[in-house]
Amino acid sequence: MYQGDIIASLVSLTNLSFDIFGDTVNLAARFQENCDPMQINIPQKMKNTLNQHYKIIERSPRNVKGRGIFPMYYLHHPISEETNKNEERIMSLTNPLHIN
Q1: Dihedral angle, C-alpha 2, 42, 28, 35, nearest 10 °
Q2: Element housing 40 (H / E)
Q3: How many Cα atoms sit within 13 Å of 33 on the Cβ side?
Q4: 13 pLDDT more than 50
Q5: Does the structure show a pLDDT above 60 at 97?
Q6: Helix, strand or coil for residue 73?
């Protein structure tokens, strides 16, 4: 999964086919190539946007063909309010200096 600008074009007026182009599409394809089955691979920028709402698994940086080394992350499950409360309780039990 990658985010950014794309260019779309209509290929046929009778078939309503279209195609998309651009750097974002190319990077999304490269991220997909570096992803295990049934996972969602995201870049650093998207991780920073989603990390308060989803459990994110850090992966080792990968070489993206033609672009260099990129940090990559797996987007896991949503973090619910109950999950946050449980994590706070665990933190207060394991760290007596934790301030609520």
Answers
A1: -170
A2: none
A3: 11
A4: yes
A5: no
A6: strand
* Domains (range + CATH), the chain: 7-94 (3.30.70.1230)
Average pLDDT taken over every residue of the chain: 81
Q: Sheet of 54-58: strands edge to edge?
A: 41-43, 72-78, 54-58
Instruction: Dump the DSSP string for 76-89.
Output: EEEPPHHHHHHHHH
Integer Cα distance of 78 and 55 in angstroms: 6
For the chain, helix (H) and strand (E) counts, in that order, are: 3, 7
At 40-51, the pLDDT tens digits run: 999 998 999 998
For residue 8, the 8-state DSSP code is: E
- Residues 59, 75: Cα–Cα separation, whole Å: 11
Judged by DSSP in three states, 30 sits in helix
Spatial separation of the C-alpha atoms in residues 36 and 60, rounded to whole Å: 13
Beta bridge partners of 64: 68
What does the alpha-carbon distance between residue 69 and residue 51 come to, in Å, rounded to a whole number?
21
